[in-house]
Q: What sequence folds into this?
């Protein structure tokens, strides 16, 4: 390279993967970019509130914040406030639990350079199998029944994503397309399974398009709060444990090393003797297992029953599985980052739900859509890394392509 | 390579040629007709239709992969197979009744296929220029809300359609700025676009219309009634009274084929999608081409959305597109990134939606089995991208941001 200013062609490097690009941004931006991105997205969301509804954005955000229950951590609030905040916080953490898992699902595939956009389908597959196991086989003892449901549900998600991984590994079909198709296949399959006269439809009422209720002894134990008001169940700890598992697999095992190597540069990994096709299949399967786990934990933890509307209504972009993409990207695919971004999105979802947002401050039906807007903005900004591209390049005079060309 | 494996390999490669698939399609079409006859005597209409659809799919497949004559033969065989098979299964009903049912079904197929056609052709432009458009769904949703909102506010469906197109293009502009200029990942941004569209339309819909919903007197896109065709046997009920937008989709289809494959600008577009560096070298502006293509895709997807609310459903609800943008994406891929292929796939997928909508009357009341027909588009596309047989191979430079040297 004679001229230092020349930008290496991005589209010609063999090591050009999404994972390597994000890894660069991660090193370049550190913890600052996700924070600034979030603040920026909230700022624009606040502008929307101000311009369209003429409400005070600060009081709106404050009401949303109080709805999340995060003020429970403040030492100065009164006892009555604390009781209410505890209840709100339990709901927030209930939503955070699946978000951690779907975030891990997206992140794990990301680390292998794959884009698992089918988290929602894998979540649905996990919950379908979970509800089927937990509502049938009623003779089993509680703990065994729960473990069986969780394992089978997680495997269902893994199997679904495994199909996409297998197709990528063998015939090179792009995982984005295959996972989208698999998503919709699952959504419509659920319509048949739980629909009228479907094989898994409830035996209680013929016009109800839903599953049977899961057995009473398969409900996950509520360790904080009132089980009737749905306090926080032990699935939260499963999600936390999975964060550790994720970190250990990636950083302390051969498999994780190979996954990261393939993610950075599949060609180089192949030269190094790594079976890239095996890694593609395995990382998709593991990724789907996380998402399936999210589905089954939600069913055993607080849903207890699945309806067709529940699954097909979730087909839109606003659902847990799709949010996993935002969680993973904002969390920069790291275990700690995923925890905090899942908490952020869980809080946002919960704080704007009609059960928790003060309707006199801001109408919750509008706020739910505001959440979608903020999610979209976060994705937009984090996906583009505007801040990194401009600020960092201005400071160091480097471009993203440079790093890649030297590493290949 | 061992010697005795050679003939097997040759036979397999013959079978996996588009021609082989087409011939298999013709067989399937014949099978569909035969299913209802002795000795099989299928008494439900489901099997002939199912096998017939597979035959049509095989036909479209081989047509869009170069084996025109055999492919169209398979399509025809499939359609005939469905018609004959279902005629035979419903022999107790008078024939006139069946004709009415079928022409209604085909008209309904066109109605379901049209939004898909618009969005798929939109996606075609974007993807042919090398920009993945997962955001089709969102752009369609924008069009469907702003179309009906514009028609309500201006009291004119034409202005509503224009506003819809503009709204779709605005969202597409966001996609273009982020993916082309800022070189962000196209799939992440596409996902963000879907979130944004859901948020924007949901927010405005709740804010403006709230619980009252869309007023009933919003002007609608008119149907074109063709007097001399209306009373024609069988064809009349299908084409005699179609919506304006359906005719427009036919025009668009032919236009886009001409633009993409017969005009210099189409060649430039495809060059940018296949090898941007080479296109840049000969003086084609990669950025400008991609911007135009993405904007066109947003406008067209929004047009499909506007048809959905103004010409088809006549109402709006949050997330009304319900995955149609993704079906359009599937049609685009199944049709191998070609206008007529995408249109044929949209027709096929529209047919399966129409069946899912109308078939329940054939089953015991309220059965959920027809839901399975909705799986067909996705399953077929999955096979198309995965299959060793005439695989769908995207434009070479798709998904990669371009950096000008």
A:
């Amino acid at each position: 390279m004679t001229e230092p200013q020349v930008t290496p062609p991005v589209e010609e490097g063999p090591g050009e993967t999404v994972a390597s690009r994000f890894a660069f941004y991660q090193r370049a931006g550190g913890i600052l970019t996700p924070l600034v991105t979030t603040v920026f997205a909230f700022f624009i969301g606040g502008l929307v509130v101000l311009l369209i509804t003429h409400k005070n954005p600060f009081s709106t955000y404050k009401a949303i914040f109080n709805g999340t229950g995060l003020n429970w951590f403040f030492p100065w609030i009164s006892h009555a406030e604390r009781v209410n905040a505890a209840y709100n916080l339990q709901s927030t953490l209930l939503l955070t639990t699946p978000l951690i898992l779907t975030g891990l699902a997206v992140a794990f595939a990301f680390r292998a350079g794959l884009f698992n956009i089918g988290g929602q389908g894998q979540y649905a597959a996990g919950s379908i199998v979970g509800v089927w196991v937990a509502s049938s086989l009623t003779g089993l003892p509680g703990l065994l029944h729960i473990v069986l449901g969780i394992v089978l549900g997680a495997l269902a998600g893994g199997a679904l994503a495994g199909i996409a991984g297998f197709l990528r590994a063998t015939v090179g079909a792009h995982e984005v397309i295959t996972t989208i198709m698999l998503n919709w296949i699952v959504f419509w399959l659920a319509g048949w399974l739980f629909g009228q006269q479907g094989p898994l439809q409830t035996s209680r009422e013929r016009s109800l398009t839903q599953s049977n209720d899961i057995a009473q002894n398969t409900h996950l134990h509520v360790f904080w709060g009132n089980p009737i008001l749905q306090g926080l169940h032990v699935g939260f700890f499963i999600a936390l444990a999975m964060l550790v598992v994720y970190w250990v697999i990636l950083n302390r095992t051969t498999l994780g090393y190979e996954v990261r190597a393939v993610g950075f540069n599949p060609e180089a990994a192949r030269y190094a003797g790594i079976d890239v096709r095996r890694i593609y299949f395995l990382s998709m399967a593991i990724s789907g297992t996380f998402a399936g786990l999210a589905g089954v934990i939600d069913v055993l933890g607080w849903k207890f029953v699945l309806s067709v509307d529940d699954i097909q209504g979730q087909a839109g972009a606003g659902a847990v599985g799709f949010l996993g993409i935002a969680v993973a990207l904002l969390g920069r695919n790291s275990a700690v980052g995923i925890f905090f971004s899942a908490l952020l999105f869980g809080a946002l979802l919960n704080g704007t739900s009609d059960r928790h947002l003060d309707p006199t401050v801001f109408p919750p039906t509008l706020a739910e859509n505001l959440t979608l807007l903020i999610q979209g903005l976060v994705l937009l900004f984090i996906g583009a890394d505007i801040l990194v591209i401009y600020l960092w390049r201005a400071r160091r005079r480097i471009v993203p392509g440079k790093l890649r060309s030297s590493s290949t | 390579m061992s010697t005795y494996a050679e003939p097997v390999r040759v036979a397999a490669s013959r079978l996996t040629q588009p021609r082989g698939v087409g011939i298999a399609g013709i067989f399937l079409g014949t099978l569909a007709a035969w299913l209802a006859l002795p000795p099989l005597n299928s008494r439900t209409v489901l099997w002939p239709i199912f096998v017939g659809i597979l035959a049509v799919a095989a036909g479209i497949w081989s047509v869009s992969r170069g084996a025109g004559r055999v492919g169209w033969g398979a399509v025809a065989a499939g359609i005939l197979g469905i018609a004959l098979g279902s005629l035979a299964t419903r022999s107790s009903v008078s024939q006139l009744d069946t004709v009415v049912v079928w022409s209604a079904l085909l008209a309904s197929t066109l109605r379901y296929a049209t939004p898909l056609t618009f969005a798929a052709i939109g996606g075609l432009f974007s993807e042919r220029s090398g920009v993945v458009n997962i955001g089709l769904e969102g752009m369609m949703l924008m069009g469907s809300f702003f179309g009906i909102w514009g028609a309500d506010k201006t009291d004119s469906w034409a202005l509503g359609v224009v506003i819809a197109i503009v709204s779709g293009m605005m969202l597409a502009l966001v996609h273009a700025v982020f993916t082309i200029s800022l070189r962000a990942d196209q799939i992440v941004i596409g996902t963000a676009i879907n979130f944004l569209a859901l948020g924007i339309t949901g927010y405005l819909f709740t804010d403006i219309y709230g619980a009252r919903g869309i007023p009933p007197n919003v002007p609608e896109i008119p149907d074109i009634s063709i007097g001399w065709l209306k009373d024609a046997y069988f064809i009349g009920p299908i084409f005699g009274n179609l919506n304006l937008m359906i005719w427009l989709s036919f025009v668009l289809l032919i236009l886009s084929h001409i633009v993409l494959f017969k005009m210099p600008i189409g060649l430039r577009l495809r060059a940018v999608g296949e090898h941007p560096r080479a296109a840049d070298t000969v003086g084609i502006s990669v950025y400008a081409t991609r911007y135009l293509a993405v904007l066109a895709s947003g406008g067209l997807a929004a047009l499909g959305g506007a048809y959905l609310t103004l010409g088809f459903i006549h109402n709006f609800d949050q997330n009304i597109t319900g995955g149609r943008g993704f079906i359009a994406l599937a049609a685009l891929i199944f049709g191998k990134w070609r206008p007529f292929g995408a249109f044929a796939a949209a027709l096929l997928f529209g047919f399966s939606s129409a069946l899912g909508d109308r078939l329940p009357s054939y089953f015991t009341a309220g059965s959920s089995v027809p839901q399975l027909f909705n799986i067909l588009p996705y399953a077929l596309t999955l096979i198309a991208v995965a299959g060793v047989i005439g695989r769908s191979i995207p434009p070479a430079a798709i998904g990669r941001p371009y950096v000008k040297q």
About this structure: The mean pLDDT of chain B is 81. The radius of gyration of chain B is 22 Å. Residues 95-128 of chain B form the longest helix (34 residues).
